Amino acid sequence: MSDGTGVGSGVRARPRLTVLSGPSGVGKSSVLAELRRMGPEIHFSVSVTTRKPRPGEVDGVHYHFVDAAEFRDMVARGEFLEHAEFAGNCYGTPKAPVERALASGTPSLLEIELQGARQVRVAMPEAQLVMLAPPSWEDLVGRLTGRGTEDPAVVARRLEIAREELAAEPEFDEVVVNDDVKSAAASLLNLVVGPVPDA
């Protein structure tokens, strides 16, 4: 049964890699959680990180948790599609699972920071870059400051980074505004599995 997004329509475009990026606090985790419920045929890339697991995070599900030495070895072996340092920790996207998914005909989605998205653009020019944006700058400020659990200096730094990330919007192929999680997930699903025009 088709839901209007191309899923179940019987029409299969060639699979592609979609890169989702957006500032801290924009709701990427919530949108991706909704997308998982809507689009089970999508391969969700699991990043490698050197940061410690947070409560409830499962190794191999949320991230692959490694130490700094192992991460450096993986970089040296060329195992990453992209890798970057963010907030004092290293993050990387394993190349092999993405390549396997695309080769099998399954669209692949990865969520990474701006500098990583730029690396993917160079490594895989055919990848689709999507920015998840807040309804407004004031809305994002409210989300970040409303947590009330972090040092003001940390929040200020996140806002500074967020401003830089939003300024990079012209580098992205598509922008999805997260003013409603379900609507944003539906828009993202359509971009991930929608038809791809012939080159």
TrEMBL record:
Compartments where located: Cytoplasm
GO molecular function ontology, one term from the record: GMP kinase activity
Keyword terms: ATP-binding, Cytoplasm, Kinase, Nucleotide-binding, Transferase
GO cellular component annotations of the record: cytosol
Reaction(s) catalysed by this chain's protein: GMP + ATP = GDP + ADP
Matching SUPFAM superfamilies: P-loop containing nucleoside triphosphate hydrolases (SSF52540)
Family: Belongs to the guanylate kinase family.
Summary of the function given for this chain in its UniProt record: Essential for recycling GMP and indirectly, cGMP.
Protein name in UniProt: Guanylate kinase
Gene (UniProt): gmk
